[in-house]
Amino acid sequence: RHCTDTVCCVIFIVVILGYIALGIVAWVHGDPRKVIYPTDSYGQFCGQKDTANENKTILFYFNILKCASPVVLINLQCPTTQLCVSKCPDRFATYIDVQASYRYKPDQWNYFRQFCKPGFNNPRKSVAQVLRDEDCPSMIIPSRPFLKRCFPDFSTKNGVLTVANQTTFRDGRGKTRNVTDLREAANGINNVLDARSVGVKIFEDYAISWYWILIGLFIAMIVSLLFLVLLRFTAGVLFWIFIFGVIGIIGYGIWHCYWEYDHLKGIPGSDLTVYDIGFQTDFRVYLQLRQTWLAFMILLCIVEVIIILMLIFLRNRIRIAIALLKEGSRAIGYIMSTLFYPIVTFILIAICISYWAVTAVFLATSGEPVYKVMANQTLCKYANLTCDPETFNTTNVTKLCPGAQCTFAFYGGESLYHKYIFIFQLANAFVFLWLVNFAIALGQCTLAGAFASYYWASRKPADIPLWPLFSSFGRAIRYHTGSLAFGALILAIVQLIRVILEYLDHKLKGTQNSFTRFLLCCLKCCFWCLEKFLKFINRNAYIMIAIYGKNFCTSAKEAFFLLMRNVVRVAVLDKVTDFLLFLGKILVAGGVGVLAFFFFTQRIPIFAQEAPMLNYYWVPLLTVIIGSYLVAHGFFSVYAMCVDTLFLCFCEDLERNDGSTAKPYFMSASLHRILGKKELSPKKA
Questions:
Q1: Are 543 and 648 in contact (CB under 8 A)?
Q2: Are residues 400 and 503 in the same domain?
Q3: Contact 517, 38 (CB under 8 A)
Q4: For all residues of the chain together, what is the average pLDDT?
Q5: CB proximity list for 683: less than 8 A, separation 6 or greater
Q6: Three-class SS of residue 180?
Q7: Residue 31 CB neighbours (<10 A)
Q8: pLDDT tens profile 91-144
Q9: Region for 520 from its dihedrals, namely left if φ exceeds 0, alpha if ψ lies in -120 to 50, beta otherwise
Q10: How many domains does the chain fold into?
Q11: Distance (Å, rounded) from C-alpha 107 to C-alpha 353?
Q12: Is 370 helix (H, G, I), strand (E, B) or coil?
């Protein structure tokens, strides 16, 4: 063994050091409070401790009618004065009415004044001047906090949109407005609030069912481990049971869908279509429609037919794949520690994601407050120009543009660092992709080295090295960091290009240029295929690196041509094995999912009293199903890597050896016999 791709190794280490430096610089300049706390028109945080706004945690908008949508509000770009308040208004009121009655109704004035600029207490000032200088809002409307901002308190009464049970309100400027004007000003606010309601219910469901979800995931882990252990002894029987089990589960699903479809026959409203009822936040409504169950039944029937046809035409190839799986299960049986290596990969990727996310947030919040002139753009030529709030009142802007104000707009800066924030974000994303791919490559090379030590042992298990997994991990880190980083770099470049293409596609989605959309679609498709191809080449290159210790390019070339010389075996054995392992994942996730379904819907009499009362039973159910699939995927990925490594070793064994006494095969007798080779010659002791 010797160090490979040392230049790339040095570059990789330098990039990591630079990435750490970028994180430190971002942490010095960034301020996450800009994300956590809303900011008023003076650039001050709402709710920040040890400030005048410590007890004022909510942002209030003087004239929400000037705001185009909730997105504009959240981005702090609404062209109206914004103040920090302790609570949102709970009533309708106009400044004209409050000022006219302040002498004999001081309580109303004191209530309204808390939504005026700090320190303003001059009810004798003319209404025109107050509204011009925006000392106070022209009106307040009943609101409730959402995302720490005051939004109109919308509700629906008998199908009519209302605010505090009213459909109209006075805007304080002599006009009577309809509540729908507020809805248009806050475009889509009802959908946002509905989403918040659904989100609260989902959070409540997680809060009371999280331990049952963990129990379901633990069961999935036990089933996956049991499955891999049993494969060593009964791979063929278990896989055929799993295959027919999947067919049986889908068959039960078809019968259940038909039963629900037939049961709803004649029930009023069940013949409506999904289009008729539109989008509903309560998904149980769709389960009352016959069309829903008919669609489920047709979909399951199609899946059932496809699986059966594949089993009929690939039955002989499946037998060969099962033989290879038995050999893989035997290898894992000798090196059981490999089953838990995915935890290491998960931890490394979790560290990368955490560092990237934190750095991205600090970069996004790097900058000083930028103030702009807020005025009527059609009348003031200074509108949207930057300004200094400390000297603004001494300029001619206030004279030329009556009512103009210098208010906080966003965070930015003119320094060299602030000009290249976008470049730093791209660098952050690129190094993140590089590190994630390196962590995956390290895991693949480590597992390949461990399983290769099993295959090339003349006497199994006597000649298998002590602690093969740790030895393989040490070799990969000590000698092949550069090669792994090289492969990860190529993949990261392609993935970054795909991210940029997706960003451009999102930006150009509304364009009418058909050629541009077609070209972008073709590029996305090409780079998707390139990424899949590179992942396949890298995976096999890492196996060759683990076996022979050569550099990345040489290993990738040898692996590619070795696979091309055995392309039929690759297509049959490798892909059929992947298919069978996928069926295993589906059965684990489906079995645990069916158990979770009966539990959370209280259909298991023994545990009916233990099941929590949920708003949406599908919330923990989907979590258990997806989590079980990911748990099974983690364990089965080790198995897939084992099979791929043994298959590549087998192809290399066939080309380098001929079964003679001088060049004996290293494959096991059972694998040798099933793959149709002549009887083994005795190996050297």
A1: yes
A2: no
A3: no
A4: 80
A5: 458, 459, 664, 665, 666
A6: helix
A7: 16
A8: 888 888 888 888 888 888 888 988 998 888 888 888 888 887 778 888 888 888
A9: alpha
A10: 3
A11: 53
A12: strand
Structure token pair of residue 38: 């809303």
Domain boundaries, position 483: 322-360+423-675
Instruction: Report, in this order, helix, strand and coil percent for the chain, each rounded to 5.
Output: 65, 10, 30
Residue 577 and residue 628 share a domain? yes
Q: What pairs with residue 373 in β-bridges? A: 406
Output the DSSP codes for 108-171.
Answer: HHHHHHTTSPTT---TTS-HHHHHHHTSS-SEE--EEEETTEEEE-EEEETTEEEETTBSEEE-
> What 3-state class would DSSP assign to 606?
helix
Give, as one character, the DSSP assignment of residue 367: S
pLDDT in tens, 12-27: 999 999 999 999 988 8
Tokens of 628: 């079980």
For residue 395, give the nearest of 381, 406, 384, 409 by alpha carbon.
406
Which distant-in-sequence residues (6+ apart) come within 8 Å of 361 by Cβ? 30, 32, 35
Show the CA angle centred on residue 562, arms to residues 558 and 566, nearest 5°.
Answer: 170
Structure tokens that stand for 319 in this block? 């037998």
Do residues 113 and 120 make contact, with C-beta atoms less than 8 angstroms apart?
yes
Q: What is the pLDDT of residues 305-336, one digit of tens each?
A: 988 887 787 776 677 677 777 788 788 878 88
CA distance 537 to 553: 10
> Do residues 44 and 119 touch, judged by C-beta distance below 8 A?
no
Residue found by looking up tokens 């708003």 in the block: 615
CA geometry: angle 36, 41, 46, nearest 5 deg: 35
**Pair 497, 572 in one domain:** yes
Residues 6 or more apart whose CB falls under 8 angstroms from that of 107 comprise none
The answer to whether residue 246 is domain-embedded is: no
pLDDT band at 193 (very low <50, low <70, confident <90, very high): very low
The residues with which 368 forms a beta bridge, in sequence order, are 412
Q: How many residues does the chain have?
A: 685
Both 625 and 544 in a single domain? yes
Residue 515 located in a structural domain = yes
Under 8 Å between Cβ of 257 and 298? no
Asked whether residue 287 is domain-assigned, the answer is no
Whether residue 402 is preceded by a cis peptide bond, meaning omega within 30 degrees of 0, is no
Q: Which of 135, 134, 151, 132 is nearest to 143 (CA)?
A: 151
Give helix 468-479 / helix 421-455 axis angle, nearest 10°. 140
What is residue 685's predicted lDDT score, i.e. its pLDDT?
A: 35
Co-location of 498 and 545 in the same domain: yes
Q: Whole-model pTM?
A: 0.68
Helix, strand, or coil (residue 389): coil
In this predicted structure, the answer to whether residue 154 has a pLDDT above a threshold of 50 is yes
Quick one: DSSP state of residue 200? H
Q: Tell me if residue 178 falls in helix, strand or coil.
A: strand
Report strand pairing: 405-412 vs 368-374: antiparallel
Reading the block at residue 197, the tokens are: 């309601």
Flag whether 630 is in a domain: yes
Structure tokens at 385: 């120009």
Which position has the token pair 């543009």? 401
Q: Which of 300-309, 329-338, 535-544 has the lowest mean pLDDT?
A: 329-338
Return the structure tokens found at 459.
């006497």
Q: What are phi and psi of 368, to 5 degrees?
A: -100, 155
The DSSP bridge partners found for residue 151 are 144
Contact 269, 288 (CB under 8 A): yes
Listing DSSP states for 223-249 in one string gives HHHHHHHHHHHHHHHHHHHHHHHHHHH
Report strand pairing: 58-61 vs 82-85.
Answer: antiparallel
Confidence band (pLDDT; 50, 70, 90) for 189? Answer: very low
